[in-house]
Amino acid sequence: MSNSIVTESMDTTKALKKFFGFDSFKGNQQAVIECLLDGNDCFVIMPTGAGKSLCYQLPALMMEGTAIIISPLIALMKNQVDSIRGFSDADNVAHFLNSSLSKTDITKVKSDIVSGQTKLLFVAPETLKKDETLDFLRTIKVSFVAVDEAHCISEWGHDFRPEYRRIKSMVKEIGNVPMIALTATATPKVQYDIQKNLSMLDAKVFQSSFNRTNLYYAVKPKTSKEQVYKDIVTYIKSHQGYSGIIYCLSRKKVEEIAEMLALNGIKGLPYHAGLDAKTRAANQDAFLMEDTSVIVATIAFGMGIDKPDVRFVIHYDVPKSLEGYYQETGRAGRDGINGDCIMFYNPNDIEKLEKFLKDKPVAEQEIGTLLIDETASYAESSQCRRKYLLHYFGEEYDDSNCGEMCDNCRHPKTKVDVTKDIQDLLKVLDTTLKGEFDMHHIVNFAVGQKSDSIKSYGHFNDPAFAFGKDKDKIYWKSLTRLCHLNNFLHKNIEKYGLFSLTDKGRDFIKNPVKFQMASDSEYKNVGEEDFENAKVESICDEVLIAMLRDLRKKVAKSQNLPPYVIFQDPSLEDMATKYPISIEDMEKIHGVGKSKALKFGQQFVDLIKTYVEENEIDRPDDFVVKTSGEKSRKKIAIIQNIDKKIDIEDIAKSLGVEIGEFIEELEHMVSTGTKLDLMYYLTELMDEEYLDEIFDFFRKQEDDNIENAVKHFDGDFSIEELKLCRLQFISDMSN
């Protein structure tokens, strides 16, 4: 591609072939480009992957002068500049101007622009507002101004940027040039907000369908950290070699998950604003160049990143809005091949998001709460997720076309006839409530709950109050959402989500058609502490566990040891769930570890392998997910202090825990294969003859129930002393 300006006689199709090598446009691309070439303002709403960038790239190359592209992220600018340079035989066809450049770099950029060689200049709004930038741009020929990721302008958008709202005034200082605004996600309210703030209410609007037919949408319960980590590792390992993004809301969680992936043999790198610019750029490049398969990121990553083969997008945390969710999931499957969009949902995360709003101005709180509520409704809905998303963006969709490309359509719940209940609900809204009310008021009226709102309106005195008390709140919430989804109810965004009856709803009361519905999902609200500490429940193979117990007894007898020293019951249950068929697999079983696996594991592995083959069992390909962090650091500190022969009480005190809790930590370490030597401490507590007597007692026991020891020694030793002796015995015998 040369940098010469295309003559006006060259049509857009020929220019497309000349510059990009494509034979035809997609969707609205050609109409948008021709509108801009004619000198008109354009507002473009296209889903990610539909080719928004071409809408300003091609006219910039065809028109005289330099196009100014206002872009929100430095990483995005670099990616877009690299992309356009890839089609050119000269790197100076596109430049960016931002805080990452040196004075020498800036001088070179300006020189290329003045010489007419640069057709596209990418700038951040923060750079554009500087007097020196505006002074320079007034001296050159500007072909047009493009505002990319225009949803950043709107207070209703998911990434509010104050500088974006000054764009129109800044552009006026440059000159009277056409403007094009582009976004991949905008509700009708956001669309209006963008156009109003850019003074583009008369602009030609080009809106493509928001439907991404190749994306599969699913929501999974977020019940415990261990389970979510296992789900993520299992999913990624079953999609080996595919690229994906995992989104988190906090930098800390980004780092933790990236580290967890690395520990489990998955190439994953973090990306967030807390990293230095060099590391962020290196991690992004590693992802684009396929040196790493997964990026774990805050929402700062991916805006406009042109990687077509992202096969999955996982949301570890609930997004703050459906706009954000749609934008982020839109980075999957941009090449038209299928992509998976998986969200983990816990109602407690919604409560946390709402708490973040408490210090905001009241209006912002109300907007934020409504956006969060929409995300919760999407997650809990039993309706087609595609239909729900498209309806949110003002687009009607027949869910029979979903093609099982969402979990609710692929795995539908049992539906019941709700025609009569829809009629009853709509009648109440029409004749009793006679106005606009939020979801809570409607649902409370239906079930007969005297909330403050119900009392203030006196609605509990109405004869229709509690008309739906035979059904629960989830049912009536589901039905209200269904009515909204089918346009029987209107949700007034300007009034923060109040519902009112539509003409279509009134018509349904008179002429009902049969409707079926499954109630929405009820997700368990798991608090932060419970989520962190909850363990995954496993269903073990009862036949196999009986065989493993017999083998344990046999091995224990041959070693002259109690069975519990070989493997404890939780370890056998884990084996009978995960079917380890190698020593490496055995190391990952609960309560085993490397040393115990090598010492006792081979016979158990051989038994399980034979059992699996004879019974043609499909083994799970995930085992215990390896994690690091606070627990690992605590473990290292304990081992180091014990090696230094520091008193147990002093170690517990340094960790800020009671002695009983500390002994539990030691028991867990020993049960998972860590060898500890506490004899320096135990010999200070009691004579060696007493120690020998206690060890001999544990050697003769069939199980490790500490109450047996307490009863046997009848108060001669405290329960803490006996526990320490038991764990020393187990450590010596099995680790």
What would the keywords be for this entry?
735 residues; alpha/beta; Rossmann fold; Arc Repressor Mutant, subunit A; 5 domains; 7-stranded parallel β-sheet; 6-stranded parallel β-sheet; globular; disordered N terminus
Description:
The protein is α/β, with parallel strands linked by helices and 735 residues long. It folds into five domains: 12-207, Rossmann fold, CATH 3.40.50.300; 215-410, P-loop containing nucleotide triphosphate hydrolases (Rossmann fold, 3-Layer(aba) Sandwich); 416-517, Arc Repressor Mutant, subunit A; 542-614, HRDC domain (DNA polymerase, domain 1, Orthogonal Bundle), CATH 1.10.150.80; 632-734, Arc Repressor Mutant, subunit A (Orthogonal Bundle). It contains 35 helices and 17 strands. The strands form four sheets. A seven-stranded parallel beta sheet has the order 3-4-2-5-6-1-7, with helices on both faces. Strand 10 (268-271), helix 12 (277-288) and strand 11 form a beta-alpha-beta unit. Helix 24 (542-559) packs across helix 28 and helix 31 (659-671) packs parallel to helix 35. The radius of gyration is 32 Å and the shape is globular. The N and C termini lie far apart (68 Å). The model is unreliable at 1-9 (pLDDT under 50).
